[in-house]
Design goal:
Length: about 350
């Protein structure tokens, strides 16, 4: 994530330094460097939760965690579901602003359009906390346009998936990559972490030293990469197309479990044996994925924990109390493979 931030900052510097100003100005819609709007301390809040979509187990688990924690604490939760649409999510945030919620928890769809929603909420005096996905930090930044980001280290997730795959394939594989929603931070960063690790350029110092650095894997090739929009059926269709064009592929890296399950379904429909003919790794840790690991169809999944409720509301309270909030609050994530899937499935969603 750091590399990307640095290059964005440099872009701003270049733009501000001279000739590029006009060209870059519309994207740098940042008018002020002041802190986000304050939040009064109250026993109960009216809080918005702008969810991006509700079409997979991960999202359902996240919404359930937010709802149950709000209820436990006696807060009112105004919930919206953008059905994966940037435009709908922007108007959902607008309507929360109009309803004068105390704070908005935003699980942003893609990075650029939803950064603008943070800018608007700030202008309206409503603090925003980002959940699980980030926005473009050229446009909106933690501690300025929004309070903070709470979520996983997606670059590290991608690198962990690559490390595992390199190990189980002895460094030789032809990989089909199923990407998440184009322009979303987990799709951008899970791709980067995976590729950097295979190329030997993953800088683990930016990611708490995990996984250990590698010299690169010249015999691991990504033969095709396309979006499946984080969705099972689109993942299935996308995989089908890419596999038809690359029948010698030996591995799949999916940016989430739903697309990995889609690839399994497509392979089975063709009489292939997932887990044998093609090795599959992904990210999330859903119940279906853990079952697929137990069944030998999937090799591993890097956990991306969806249970945000407790951390989200704890951060709200800390912010209201005037505490200094870290710009990025990173969830610790486990790793699931054949060694632990059977024990872990009882806690899965
Ligand atoms: O991995 C995926 C979901 O933004 C981290 O979005 C989240 C991702 C998660 O749809 O399953």
């Amino acid at each position: 994530m750091l590399d990307r931030e640095l290059s964005r900052r440099n872009l701003i510097k270049v733009a501000v330094a001279g000739a590029g100003v006009a060209a870059f100005a519309p994207r740098i819609a940042r008018t002020t460097f002041a802190a986000p709007p304050p939040l009064a301390q109250k026993p109960n809040y009216k809080v918005g939760f702008a969810q991006v979509e509700e079409n997979n187990p991960w999202r359902i688990a996240q919404t359930e965690s937010m709802r149950s924690e709000a209820q436990r604490l006696g807060h009112e939760l105004i919930y919206t579901n953008a059905d994966g649409s940037d435009a709908k999510q922007i108007s959902d945030v607008d309507s929360m602003i109009a309803q004068r919620v105390d704070l908005i928890f935003l699980a942003p769809s893609t990075e650029d359009p939803l950064a603008q929603a943070c800018v608007k909420a700030k202008a309206a005096g409503i603090p925003v906390i980002l959940l699980d996905r980030n926005v473009n930090e050229e446009i909106a930044r933690p501690g300025e346009e929004y309070v903070c980001f709470i979520g996983s280290d997606f670059v590290q997730e991608g690198a962990r998936a690559a490390e595992f795959l390199a190990r189980v394939t002895n460094g030789t594989a032809q990989i089909i990559e199923l990407e998440g929603t184009t322009g979303s931070s987990p799709a951008i960063d899970r791709q980067k972490g995976f590729r950097d690790y295979l190329a030997g350029t993953y800088n683990n110092a930016d990611h708490l030293g995990t996984p250990a650095a590698s010299a690169g894997f010249p015999n691991m090739q990504i033969v095709a990469s396309q979006t499946g929009d984080f969705a099972r059926d689109l993942g299935r269709q996308t995989f089908e197309t890419l596999y038809a064009a690359n029948p010698t592929a030996t591995a799949v890296y999916a940016h989430n479990d739903e697309m990995a399950i889609g690839a399994i379904l497509a392979l089975e429909a063709q009489g292939k044996v997932p887990g044998k003919d093609v090795i599959i790794v992904s990210v999330d840790g859903s119940r279906d994925a853990l079952q697929a690991i137990i069944d030998g169809k999937m090799a591993a999944t890097v956990e991306c924990n969806p249970r945000f409720g407790p951390k989200a509301f704890e951060t709200l309270a800390a912010y209201a109390a005037g505490e200094q909030i870290a710009p990025k609050i990173i969830n610790p994530d486990k790793f699931f493979d054949a060694t632990n899937a059977a024990q872990e499935i009882a806690n899965a969603y």
